[in-house]
Specification:
This is WG repeat-containing protein. Keywords: Membrane, TPR repeat, Transmembrane, Transmembrane helix. It comes from Chitinophaga agrisoli. The termini are far apart. About 6% of the residues have low confidence. Strands 8, 12, 13, 14, 15 and 16 form a 6-stranded antiparallel sheet that branches. By secondary structure, the protein is of the alpha+beta class. The chain has 3 domains: 109 residues, no CATH class; 220 residues, Alpha Horseshoe (Serine Threonine Protein Phosphatase 5, Tetratricopeptide repeat), CATH 1.25.40; 111 residues, no CATH class.
Length: 478
């Protein structure tokens, strides 16, 4: 027994230096991988680090094996046979560094090959953990509330993601995108944030991926000093998320009801972001139903609570533009741009003439306001062409429009209808007059510009802006 122990001791002494090298390298690799995980919240970044380390170690050990020195006029290996042997062993085992990149590559290939299995119409409602701990009561509760309402839906799939996402960390946006890729969803919502178990801190973030025509994060921070219950917070967030989903599905009345429910169950008037965004989407739902005045009221209520929300100002400006309040629209666009430089003011420079007093104009086939001044074609982008497929009719001194089939396009309710069609971007518009105000209808009989403008030229300019910026009911910003 003593002989065996003696032999083991001698062998350990023989390889003592090599073992120290191996242990040191292992420690370094673990340290680097741990540090990389903290610094880079992205598997792709870690994979690149592993590949770089592999090539560095390969070169270092190869140089060690091939190193020569001069001795007695000959070039012999610089290091002892034992060290060269260990260098070869370590060079071989450094290939372990390629395991993770190879695994990631295989995973990407599998995801790409199986992604066709998921219907692109499907929306993934993904709920991440709100604490670093596995047992996260809030995400469980939120999942149960949402899943109960959406379980009969064919296109919305609710699931929990066993991952905590630290917003603001380096690479966290890559992590968010990877969550959708890993779960084979091209679009949907990811709900993530932080809920402290020892303080009132509650941050909820909703990442919109490919829905509502945006990729944005909505931040709903709870500023309360009161620690609300999980049931309360999960119900508020769930109603807000359901409002977004129904809005995306064009179920505007249901969506509006959900956001109104958020406002009803909200227990704190200082929760400004939640209230502001709820008012914003209530306004959007009204706007999509062409209820401009009601939408404007909601945006104004939102601004009273959260005046720093640029989307509220921008959409209020859209409403003001459509209803003829040019100066007010210009002001709100300017405020929105200062709060968020991505929200550009469409009335700046090119449309500054809109803020000037309206000009009285004469149009072909009838003077709309009795003035004989000429309209400058370069200022009015829509051009007038004969109404080949439509006819302006008069019944009892009231004007309207019918098509060649005799179907009513515009009822005979107006004091005048310009007998030519104005076209812009392939769309057709009729200028109408009621009393002293002007507006426009499209060739489908839908009101394109409310009858609230002082001149025909002003209506044409508004059409020009709406067509370039977008119909307020279709391009609501948030």
């Amino acid at each position: 027994m003593k002989n065996i122990l003696s032999i083991l001791r001698n062998e350990i002494e023989k390889y003592k230096n090599s073992l120290e090298v191996i242990i040191g390298l292992i420690a370094i690799l673990f340290s680097i991988s741990t540090l990389a995980t903290q610094i880079f919240d992205s598997s792709y970044s870690i994979a690149l680090i592993c590949i770089a380390l592999f090539f560095i170690l390969q070169r270092a050990f190869t140089e060690m094996i091939n190193a020569k020195k001069e001795a007695f006029g000959l070039f012999v290996p610089k290091y002892s046979p034992q060290k060269i042997k260990w260098a070869k062993v370590l060079r071989f085992f450094s290939g372990i560094l390629l395991v993770f990149p190879l695994f990631l590559l295989i995973k990407i290939i599998i995801v790409k090959s199986t992604s066709h299995r998921v219907d692109e119409k499907n929306i993934g409602l993904l709920i991440a953990r709100f604490t670093n701990e596995e047992d996260d009561d809030f995400s469980y509760k939120l999942f149960s509330v949402l899943d109960a309402e959406l379980q009969d839906g064919d296109t919305i799939n609710t699931m929990r993601v066993n991952k905590f996402i630290n917003i603001g960390g380096v690479g966290y946006l890559d992590t968010i995108k990877n969550v959708f890729d890993d779960n084979l969803y091209k679009k949907g919502l990811l709900i993530f944030g932080k809920r402290s178990t020892t303080s009132p801190v509650f941050d909820c973030n909703i990442y919109l991926n490919g829905i509502l025509n945006n990729k944005k994060i909505i931040h709903l921070q709870n500023p309360d000093v009161i620690k609300f219950s999980i049931d309360y917070q999960s119900q508020v967030v769930a109603e807000f998320i359901l409002g977004l989903l129904y809005y995306n599905s064009n179920e505007f009345d249901v969506s509006k009801g959900k956001f109104q429910q958020v406002l009803e169950i909200n227990q704190n008037e200082n929760n400004r972001k939640l209230i502001g965004y709820s008012r914003l989407f209530i306004g959007h739902n009204l706007l999509c139903k062409k209820q401009f005045a009601e939408a404007g009221k909601e945006y104004k209520l939102g601004i009273k609570v959260d005046s720093m929300n640029g989307y509220l100002h921008y959409n209020l400006a859209n409403v003001m533009l459509a209803t003829g309040a040019m100066d007010d629209a210009y002001r709100e666009y300017t405020i929105a741009n200062k709060l968020n430089n991505k929200l550009l003011n469409p009335m700046e420079e090119r449309y500054s003439n809109l803020r000037q007093p309206a000009k009285k104009v004469k149009l072909a086939y009838g003077t709309l306001n009795g003035d004989t001044s000429n309209i400058h074609q370069e200022k009015v982008m829509p051009i007038n062409v004969p109404a080949k497929d439509f006819t302006v009719i008069v019944i009892g001194n009231k004007y309207g429009v019918v098509n060649l089939k005799g179907d009513t396009v515009i009822k005979c309710d107006y004091d005048y209808v310009e007998p030519k069609v104005y076209t812009f971007n392939g769309k057709k518009f009729f200028i109408v007059k009621s009393g002293s105000k002007y507006g426009a209808f499209n060739n489908n009989g839908m009101q394109a510009v409310p009858i609230n403008h002082p001149s025909a030229e002003r209506v044409l300019e508004v059409i020009k802006i709406i067509e370039e910026v977008g119909d307020p009911s279709n391009v609501s910003q948030f």
